[in-house]
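Budget justification, computational time. The allocation requested in the original proposal was used primarily to generate structure tokens for proteins on the priority list. As evidence of use, we reproduce two of the resulting records. The first is shown immediately below.
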Amino acid sequence: MDQGKHMTISRSVELLLLWSLALSAAAADISGPRYTSEGSLILPSEYREWVFLSSGLDMSYTEKPAVQGMSMFDNVFVAPDAWATFKQTGHWPDRTVFVMENRGAATHGSINKLGHFQTTEFMGLEFHVRDDARFKGGWGFFASDGKQPAALLPTTDTCYACHEAHGALDTTFTQFYPTAKEIALAKHSLLEDRS
């Protein structure tokens, strides 16, 4: 093979390798937190393609319902790269993003006669984000209407103290995520007294 062809092939392989590395780095960063210049969380548009952890119906951490006079589902998703690390270590890594999507619940519709199903009524998004470089204690909470970037909740918000006191793993409510809970139990990382 002449030297010109060898250099062309070598350069092509080098460019292909660089392109592949750039794509891998971009893909790895897609699910990590991204922020506006004001510090709001940019909404991850693909979160419904992330790992589904659980769904709750009318859950409330106080004696009063979270929303008066209506029923609500919350669906929890976690970024795929965080899930992959969690399965290996039993802990949620830095740059983990959880999304809780709130949707209306109904009992009567189509052929349904009993029980509840989720409606298309969208009621907002909440985020629990681990970013050790950005937040004291590592975790921040955000809320959004689903249209605008999510605003950071102040550290005086009850989310922080509640998750610190009752989160069974890394200040998260892993005790409510059946598959993750089994992994954490197997890895001995779950605080069982908070289950």
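The second record produced under the same allocation is shown here.
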Amino acid sequence: MDHFYCIIDDIEKKEDYYLIKAYKVDDKKSFHSENESIEDKYGLNSIFFSINKLSKPSFLLHYKKALENAKLETRTNILNLGVNRGDEFEVMKKLSKNFSEQKFLGIDYCSSAIKEAEDLFANDKNISFLQADIKELASCNIGEYDLIVSIATLQSSNLEFNKTLMDIVQNHLKKDGAMILGFPNCRWVGDNIFYGAKAKNYSFSEMSLLYKDVMFCKKYLQQKKFRVTITGKDYIFLTATSIRQ
């Protein structure tokens, strides 16, 4: 059976049944393609770039809660891996009461996204951006951070998830720091978000890989003396905070 996405437009009650009016969403308008270049997939003119996660309550509510759990205002140096145009920084800027005293670094591999982020935050001298490959962080000399955020980035097909996570924690996360990881449990078609990430060879949402990655992170970070919580819906947020004395 063909798999497609639709939006409910209206529900009309009849005498003994309901008439549901819906329209089919063109799933070709999705950035979930493995055949495009980084620039075509995530750049300024891409479908991905038109997505506004902050307009979706199911993302924003749980992301704000994760920042609260990570004690955002106590963090001095903050790193965002896979920053794109900087949506996550926009939320931090609004939430933090001591924003001007904090330093932020956003890293992304897409050059046009980094350029747009630099323009959007041009007046915020405490926010800087770097175009770099996450696989090459060791050569960037970026140091350590007391909060690291990465939303739907470390699961990229060109990264070794377990190795990448361990490298980041060991080399760039302070022992008394915090970490927020966002795992997509959704699919974007245009600017519409649909619950459940469709896996290859399945016509429905199948979450084995999602759970596998989340549980690896939880166990690994707990071994490193972090308290871990898992929240969210369309995006699963793993928040880790140090329990070291």
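A brief technical remark on that second record: Helices lie at 38-42, 57-69, 87-95, 111-120, 161-172, 208-223.
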